[in-house]
Write a structure and sequence with these properties.
Elements: H1 2-14, H2 20-39, H3 42-67, H4 76-93, H5 99-122, H6 131-149, H7 154-157, E1 163-164, E2 169-170, E3 173-174, H8 178-199, H9 203-213, H10 215-220, H11 225-250, E4 253-254, H12 261-274, H13 281-304, H14 311-332, H15 336-350
Antiparallel strand pairs: 1-4, 2-3
Helix pairs in contact: 3-8, 3-9, 3-11, 3-12, 3-13, 4-5, 4-6, 4-11, 5-11, 8-11, 9-11, 12-13, 12-14, 12-15, 13-14
Amino acid sequence: MITGNLKASYAADERVFDNPNKRAFFYASLLALAGMAAFANDYVILVACQMGILLIAVTGVNVVTGYTGLISLGHAAFVAVGAYTVTIFHTAFAGTIPDGMMALIAIPLAVAVSTLVGIIVGLPALRVKGLYLAVATLSANFIVIFLIEQEAFARWTGGMVGIDTPVPNLLGWQLDTKREMFVLIAALGVITLLAVQNLFRTRVGRAFIAIRDRDYSAEIMGISLLRYKLTSFAISAALCGLSGALFAYFYARILPEQFELALSLELVAAMIVGGMGRTMGPVFGVLVIVMVPEVIKSIFGVATGGVAGVAQLLAPLQEIAFGLLIVLFLLFEPLGLNHMADRALRALNRWPFAR
């Protein structure tokens, strides 16, 4: 039943710009982003930047899990690879490459290195799937973090204490404020969503979906599982690498603990809550996943009056909230918030003519 719903869900998603309400929502979102860049306060910009960075990574997870059906719990590793690649590149080539060109080279390099790592991590998908593949990708996450923390690589990664990150400079435009970073993050986030939307109108995207629905049948039809599973992992890792590059530019310092299992679970939670295999699913999922900690923080702040020590309780509560969200959506709305939004739009379309 869920597989049939996913097929219908994809068909509706493919026609996203054929629906006037969805078109209006898209253009309104662009106007909202422009308005935020111009008028939003610093706190809103900060939260929006965090959402944008997470959105690109969740979109990557959605490609490999939501569209291709390959379960991965290790995508935080690709985000880490992207973040550390950018930082190490800036450190290694500072003074030898013009500042205005550094980011233009570092971001594609981070994407390329993450893609290569994604292909390597995706190799087990050729032989195993389901829980076994999830464990394999989780192991890859542990390995990447382990290597980052080793003293042998501390010269480049900073080891356990982390490393300071560079300030991006795009052809003389130095993005040294959060508002300027928001413009870059928002632009790349929109481009990512449009690229993924169009990817699944192509032969490659349809091959991913065929593998998700029934991989043996897809192979009988002539679809190369080797080629397309590795391609799915490569695209997914590339998007996470892009997210990692923006992560490094946004935060003043990166630490290995920022890319551990908790981040991978957060990415999966956002995908499930928003809706697997849907273009706008990551958008809805990220809105919920980022806003839940902020709401919990605000409630505790009001309830306790800012008493010292309460902050220590927030992290466990956030983990509990994420777990509850995953369980509740899997039980009551496995197609996520995107499907709920579609039903609301269909009801809106019928409403003027309802008797």
